Structures are given as structure tokens and as C-alpha cells.
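Appendix B, Record 12. Input sequence as logged:
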Amino acid sequence: MELSSSHPASPNSFQGPDGMENLGSILKQKATEKHHRAEVMIAGEQLRLRLHDGNLIKDRRYHLRTYPNCFVAKELTDWLIDHKEAPDRETGIRLMQKLMDHYIIHHVCDEHFDYKDAKLLYRFRKDDGTFPLNKDVKVFMRGQSLYETLISIEDSILKVREENSVKYQRTFLACEMIDWLVQEGEAANRKEAVELCQVLLEHGIIQHVAGRHHFYDGNLLYQFRINFRRRRRLAELLSENSSRALSDSPDSPFCLRKLNPEQNSGSFLSVQPNKEIKTVSAVRRSSVTSLAGGSNPYFNLSPSLGFLPAVECNPKSVLKRPVTNEELLTPGAPYIKKTLTIVGDAVGWGFVVRGGQPCHIQAVDPGGPAAAAGMKVCQFVYSVNGMYVLHLDYQTISSLIMTGPRTLVLEIMEATE
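Logged structural output:
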């Protein structure tokens, strides 16, 4: 499957002659399928983090061998019922089979290809590095990163807007999105930004509010089809249509809601199924930065491509001036190296990386794990889990973090002044 979009010729690509209508119908169907796949990935990741917090995922010994980061199927089925995620064992089995079918969990030895409610060990693929980072997943991760960045900034282009007497959530004007992508360095030019948004639309991440158009640089109104922050109920996975209905429900107890809506607050309430309410931050794991992947220039994972020149700096960078690797590594330079161990919580690590050669910390959530570990803005990332990264760009470092273990070990360099 190619990452490039179909590049429709006009804003009427979903309308017109029969052939064009069929093309639009096929595009919508594929986008809906990929949208459901994205919902499964989000629900699976939320479950994985909850199980880590509940200590159901841990190292276990069986026949003199230790299996790291795994869970017992029978115990998990009990947990799903106890936490009201499944009404009975049969439903719990169906839910976990759904995750297996989407390559989110697997048997630790791959000896069982279906989920058995027994004393068998299974593992999330993200915990052992076998989660398939194919092109569709990379597009999803890029869309999630863009959403988290947009939702977290002040005066965001994402707003509730009304069109034809209907109010839509998480909307943006196409031209404003293109302006923002270019301004923030997410795309090199308007053409590349349009292509990126077309790919996001074809993967069910964004859509025209009325579903009538592909993506074009103009005044058409679009919205993020996926609310990445909404807490998913696992039962939604068993219906490809129910997730769409629940995702926009303002009364759903599984939505993330803003505290004091009249204020510009970055905090949200996460209402759990057990009715416990806790405050979480607007900048967390999936906000680490924009992810990349594939052969497309704005999905490129190759460390040798897409670097930000060392003499340049993002116009909105927190750095007062550009800093080079040579300056950081010069003997006697006013920089010290520190090691930070950051254990991600149920939402993530809580920081944003930007720049390249070297990358720097652009933002830190004051209530997140990174801040608790001592991370500050303007620090430079020296290594990630023992890997030297001063020569890498922020997209590659983001990929290393997102696909690595939950406990993140960073070496950073900060100015002594």
C-alpha cells in the first residue's frame, strides 16, 4: 500500500458522474475501515497502560524460563469483568481476540493464534518490540501527534464551528491547517501539506464535516474524525459503528473534559469506569512530537533524511539561539550532562521534542512524569535508552521513544548558566 494520496482533481470528487460517486464511496469505505483500525489501536494502548498500572503486566516464570512484560489470560478475563469492561467471560474472550486479530497482543511463544481463557501467557506487542510499524500505523501516529499538538496550544485552529445549523467538534478550515503545518515545519510547503492532509483523510483521521469532499487548500471545513483523548470502552471494539456514535457524545462518561471551560486551562478530567476522577495533562505521551515513517518526505524515518539544519531554529522554538553539536561537546563548554529516568503514567511521559542535530526539549507538562524526573525546556537530548542521538532529528528520536519501553532513560545536556 502506497502512502501517497489519490490527489483528486477538484473539490467535487465525492460528487458528480457515477464513476466519481463510486470513487468517493470506495474512498469513504476504506477510510472507515482504517478509522476502526485506529480505534482498536487506541483502545488497545489505553488497556496496556491500565494493565501496567494495575501490575497485571509483569515478568513471570514458567518452566524455569522468565517471560518479561506478560499477563495471564485467565487473570485478564477476570479483570475485564471486575472493571465492567466485559459483562461475561465470553465477551472478554471476544474483546481480546479482537486485539489479537489486529496484531496488538500475542501468545508469548506464538504457539496459540487465538485467545484462550486459560493460564496461558500473552503479551502486548508494544512491550516486546514486535508491534508492526507499517505505513498505516505511521500515518495514524502522525495524525495523533498533530492532534495532540493542536489541542494543547493556545489559540488553536481546532474549534467548535457551525455549518448549516449543525455544530461540529474539533474543526478547522483547510487553509488554516495548511498555514499551520508550513509555519510549524510539519511540511516544507503548501503542496506537501495538502498531500499530508489528503493521506490523513484517506486513513479516516480527518474528514470533511459533511463527508462531501476530499481535502483541498481552501475555505472548506474539516474536522478530526478521531478524538484521540477520549477514553474508550473495550466493548466498542465489537462494533465498527458504535465507536463513531460514542466518540462525539458530550455526555459519555469516557470523554476527556476540560476543567473550567471558561478558562484557558490545559488540564482535563478523565472519568474512569470505576467513577474515580483524576486530573491529567494536555501534553503527554502522544504529544512527544510528530512521528514519521515511510518513503514520503513527511513520513520519513530515515536518520539521513529530513534533518533540520543545525544553523536553523523553529520560529517558535524556546531556544534563545541555535546551538550546534560542536558547541555542546567542546571541552570546557558551559553544559553538563544529566541522566533522567522517566516512568510513563497512564497517559504518557509529558514532554515535547523539537529541532535536530541536536534536538531540544520544547515543552514539559508541569504535572507529568518528565517534570517530576527533572526535565526542563531548553535541555538537549544526548541519548535515548543508551543510544546516542545528538545526530538525529526529532522525528527519529520520537520513534525511538514511542516504540521503546515504558521506562525511559534519557541523557540530557543543559546549560550551567
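The mean pLDDT is 77.
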